[in-house]
Every structure is written in C-alpha cells, then in structure tokens.
Automatic annotation (TrEMBL):
Keyword Lyase carried by entry: yes
Entry's family note: Belongs to the class-II pyridoxal-phosphate-dependent aminotransferase family. MalY/PatB cystathionine beta-lyase subfamily.
Domain Aminotransferase class I/classII large stretches: 27-370
Parts of the chain that traverse the membrane: none
Record key words, sorted: Lyase, Pyridoxal phosphate
InterPro entries registered for this protein in UniProt: Aminotransferase_I/II_large (IPR004839), C-S_lyase_PatB-like (IPR027619), Class-II_PLP-Dep_Aminotrans (IPR051798), PyrdxlP-dep_Trfase (IPR015424), PyrdxlP-dep_Trfase_major (IPR015421), PyrdxlP-dep_Trfase_small (IPR015422)
Pfam families on file: Aminotran_1_2
PANTHER family, alphabetized: PROTEIN MALY
GO MF annotation terms: cysteine-S-conjugate beta-lyase activity; pyridoxal phosphate binding
Keyword Lyase part of the UniProt annotation: yes
Lineage of origin: Bacteria, Thermotogati, Deinococcota, Deinococci, Deinococcales
Protein's name according to its UniProt entry: cysteine-S-conjugate beta-lyase
Enzyme Commission code: 4.4.1.13
Enzyme class: lyase
Length: 376
C-alpha cells in the first residue's frame, strides 16, 4: 500500500485535535468522527500549492473547478448547487427553509445529534421515529412513520448512509421512504456525507430514485468524512430543483462561505483522491471485522450489528445493566471516550457509538479496558 495508515499516538495526540485533546491523557478517544490516519498526500500537496497563490477571497460563488466537478458529479445545474461552510449549516438551513416555527420535522432515531438540535434550536417540532432492530441490521419502521406523521409535518430528514448505525439504505427501503414523502407532500433533506464510506457497496442516492423525488429533495454532501478533513469545513447542498436551493440561499444569507483552502482540498479529493480512498476503505473494512471479532470474543454481552458504511459502531450495551449511561460509565471506569447514547435520541442510555478509524492496537486496548471495567 503506497499510503500510510499508521497511527502514532505521539503524532495524533495534540491540542489542535478535538478528538485527542477533549479528555485527560489517560483516556483513549474513540468518539468524534475523525479518522486517526494522515490526510491523503495529493490533498496535502494541493494545499501547499494553493498557499503560493495567496489567501485573498476566492470567487464568491465558489471556485469554478470545484463547482464544475460537483455539478457534474451530482448531475445538477449551477443554480442547483450551494456551497456551505459545513454540512451542519445545511441541516439548519434546510429546517429553516422547509418548515416554519411550530411545524413538524421528522427524523429517525438514533441520529447524528445536530439533526435534533437543528429542529429544536429553530423552534420546529421534532417527530423522532425509532429505527427497529432486524435480524442483522437496523431497519426503518414504516408503520411508526405513518402513525406519527400529521398535517403539520413538513420535512423529512434522512441520513444515508446512516450515522450512527452505519446502515446503507437499500433501494427498496428508499423507495418506501420516497413513496411516504410524496404521499404526505414532505420535503426531504438527505444527508449523504458518508456516501463515499460505503464499505460493502450498494449506496443509492435518494434523489436518484425518480425525477419527482429529486424535485422534493435537497442532498447534503461534503468531503470531510471520507477524506478526514473536518478541520477545513466545507459542504454543499444540491438539488435538481433549483428553486429549493434559491430558497435555502436566502435563508442562509450571511452565514459565511467556505475557505479557499477548503475548496482546494475538496477539488483535490474529487480529482486525485480516489486511490487513497480505495485504500482507506480496505483499512476500514479490516478494522470493522477486527472489532466485530474482538467484541464477539471478549464482550459477548454487547450487541453489535456490523455497519455497512462509515467507521462508526453503534454498540448496544443494555445487557450489562450499567449503573449510569454507557458512555459515562466507560469514560469514568474504563477511560475510553465513546459518544454517549442519549445524545443520539431519547432512551439510548444503554448505547454508545465507537469510532473504529484507528489502529488495531488502539481498538484492542480500548476493548480490554472496557472488559476490565465491566468485570471488576
Ligand atoms: C451525518 C453527518 N452529517 C454532518 C456531519 C458534520 O458535517 P460538517 O462537519 O461538515 O458540518 C457529520 C459529522 O460526523 C455527520 O456524520
């Protein structure tokens, strides 16, 4: 493999890293969704070259090479694309655009926490529909969606692939979601930030299902999960329905633009990042399988449905009957920082999300610490 995916604690643990500086030195951090691997060399090279061009404003509508690459990739017109300082900005802007205060916004839970804060912080009403556990994967509960939708529901927020369960929704599942959205005349925002991190194939873009679905959908995308560049903040909202993007632009006016370096980074990721991405996916598949074997052998009480995408494992630790939330217990007693279940929705006290984009050594140490804390 030409690229290095080594993890040296002396390199990754520094004060500029939220992941490695949030907790005390004796804590192993497997929480926030950054990978512990170095940035792809072609991206680093492109950033170096960009610095020679100075750091004045880049074109206000986005650098042409990036805009062209993104519109081609998503098959949308220039007017159907809006660059964002990050994908979370797009979640907030879409909630503000497609529902008025007091109106309802539906999301599945568990869910990446800013889905819920985007609804609550803007005084919209959340309708949170729990996923259900199937034989070997989490599934959408269509009956529950039907039972909770009301005439005041305006927007459906979809996470595809899904954080934290790592589900890549199948075409059949997405078609049922689309049919539901059309039937209830909902707008859909589909956060597809993890699309390039599909480990087993099968990713289907929601807006690709049909023209009438695309016309009601805004897709959010960005490079930061697949290319490990979250510190450079950038994302985009795209839609075949340019009127939706025009509305979002008005709502998001004044909230800032992505930096010149972020635009260079994303363009390099699209045009030169493929070989690195292929390799990192191989590493992540191996880490997922390593973790699954380890959990099965050392922590059989934990339920762990292997993710089909992302580098996140949604651990169900309810069988351990821990005295506090799973995340709080493991932080205090095992000195391992995971994302605590309740941040992903109500009644997930016994769950925690583990980020496995690190070395086998770190994963093995984390699981041993957890086993020791539980057995002591
Ligand atoms: C589904 C999802 N959306 C958005 C984000 C954050 O995106 P950004 O950092 O571009 O705001 C994350 C980060 O993990 C995520 O998992």
């Amino acid at each position: 493999m030409p690229f290095s995916f080594d993890v040296e604690e002396s390199v990754v643990r520094h004060p500029a890293s939220a992941k490695w500086s949030m907790f005390a030195e004796d804590v192993l951090p497997l929480w926030v969704a950054d990978m512990d691997f170095p940035v792809a060399p072609p991206i680093v090279e492109a950033l170096r070259r960009r610095l020679d061009l100075g750091l004045g404003y880049s074109p206000f509508e986005g650098e042409k090479t990036l805009v062209d690459a993104l519109t081609a990739r998503h098959g949308v017109a220039r007017e159907g694309l809006m660059l964002l300082p990050g994908v979370v900005s797009g979640l907030y802007a879409s909630v503000r655009t497609f529902a008025s205060p007091g109106e309802e916004v539906m999301s599945h839970v568990p869910i990446y926490p800013p889905f819920m804060s985007a609804i609550r912080d803007t005084d919209r009403a959340p309708i949170l529909v729990p996923l259900v556990e199937g034989a070997n994967r989490y599934e959408i509960d269509f009956d529950a969606m039907q039972a909770s939708v009301t005439p005041a529901t305006r927007l459906l927020m979809l996470c595809n692939p899904h954080n934290p369960t790592g589900r890549t929704w199948t075409r059949e599942e997405l078609e049922r979601v689309a049919e539901f959205a059309l039937r209830h005349r909902l707008w859909v925002v589909s956060d597809e930030l993890h699309a390039d991190l599909t480990l087993d194939g099968g990713f289907v873009a929601f807006a690709s299902l049909a023209a009438e679905v695309a016309a009601r959908t805004v897709t959010l995308t960005g490079p930061c999960k697949a290319f490990n560049t979250a510190g450079l903040g950038i994302g985009a909202a795209v839609s075949s329905n340019a009127a939706l993007i025009a509305r979002m632009k008005k709502v998001a006016a004044g909230t800032g633009h992505p930096s010149a370096l972020a635009q260079t980074m994303w363009h390099a990721a699209i045009t030169e990042g493929e070989p690195w991405l292929r390799d990192v996916l191989n590493v992540l598949r191996a880490r997922r399988d390593f973790l699954a074997d380890l959990v099965r052998a050392r922590l059989p009480e934990a339920r762990f449905l292997a993710p089909q995408a992302t580098y996140l494992a949604w651990l169900d630790l309810r069988a351990l009957n821990l005295p506090t939330t799973a995340g709080a217990f493991l932080l205090e007693r095992a000195k391992v920082a995971l994302n605590d279940g309740p941040t992903f929705g109500p009644s997930y006290e016994g769950f925690a999300r583990l980020n496995f984009a690190t070395s086998e050594a770190v994963l093995a140490e984390a699981i041993e610490r957890i086993v020791r804390a539980i057995r002591s």
